[in-house]
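New here. Your pick:
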Amino acid sequence: MYPGLGEVEPVDKLRAIQYFNEAAECGSFAAAARTLNVSAPAVVQLVGALERSLGRALFHRTTRGLTLTADGERYHQVSRQIVADLRDVEQRLGPRGTPPRGTIVIGMRPSVGMHCVLPRIARFVASFPDIEIVIRPALTVQDIDDKHLDLALLVGWPPEGDLVVRQLVQTRLIVCASPDYWARRGMPREPEDLREHDCLIVRSSGGTLLDRWIFERNGERRAINVRTRMVGDDLVWIGEAAAAGAGVLRVIDITLPGYFSSGRLAPALTDWEALEAPVVFAAYPRIQRRSRLVRVFLDFLIEAFAELDAQRPAEFGASMSRVSKPEWFGRTHGRQSAFEARRRKRSP
C-alpha cells in the first residue's frame, strides 16, 4: 500500500504522475492500465496515493468512467509538462547518437491521414523503432488541448496565437466526378454549368457547409452556389460517393491521388482556378519546441508533403501561394452561400 507519496521513493511519485496522466487521457483506470501494461489495481492504488498526498480529489469517479475535477485539470496541465520535460532531458542526457524513444500523440484529419501520411508511415516506423505513435482524429486546433495531442496535422488556415505552426503544402481545389457521372450528365465547360449538377459538399473544420464555389481565370472571377445533394464531414466517405457516380465533388488535390491515377475520378474546369484552397499545416504547443519526438515526426511530415507536392499531376497546375483566410472562415456554422447572402444584405 502507499499511505502517502511522501513516504515512498521518488520513482514511485513519478510513476503515480504517469499513471494519473494516462488515466486522465484514457478516461478510466482500466484503459490506462491496458495502455501502461500494468494491473488496474496498481493504477488505482498509486493515483489514490497521489490524491491523498495532495489532499485533493483529482477525479470524479462514476460508473461511466473518470472526469477531472477542477484541481485535477490544473494538476494535469502541469504534470503533463513535467513528464514532457523529463522525457526531453532523458533524451538529451543519453549517449550521443541515441535514437529518440517514447510515445508521441498525433492528431490528423482522417482523409489526410489515410491518403497522405499512413501510406508513408512505414518509413518513419522503420527509422525510429523506439517511438510509439498514438493517432487520434483531429479537425481543429482546439483538439490539441482537448485530445492531449503533441502535434496536430490540420487542413484550413494557420491560426495565430501560442501554437507553433509549420505550413506543409498549399493545396489546389479540383472539381471532379466519376467518368460515368460525366458521361450521364455532361462535363461542365463554364462554372455556371455546375448549377445543373448534383454536388457533394464537404463541411469545413469550422462547421461551414462549403456550397459556394469561387473560380478565377485571367482576372475574371465567378462565384457559384451549387446544389447540394450530399454533405459529409470528411472526404473519406464523400470521395467514395463521388467515385461511385453520386455527383460532383470539389476536393483538395493531394487527398485523393489514387482516385485520379486509377481513373475513378476525372477532373473538370481545369482551366479555371478554384479559389479558397486551404493549407495543410502542422501545429503544436510551444512547450513541445524542444521535443525530439515532435522534431523527428515534423521532419517526416515535411518530407512526405514535399514528395506529394512533387508528384502532383501536371493538369492540376502548380501549387498556389495564397494562404489568406476567407471572410467566412470561423464566422459561420451554416451554409457558406447563406453567409454571403447576409453579408451582401448588410453591405450598403
Residues 215 and 274 are 4 Å apart (CA to CA). The first strand starts at residue 59 and ends at 62. Residues 5-91 form a domain with the Arc Repressor Mutant, subunit A fold (CATH 1.10.10.10).
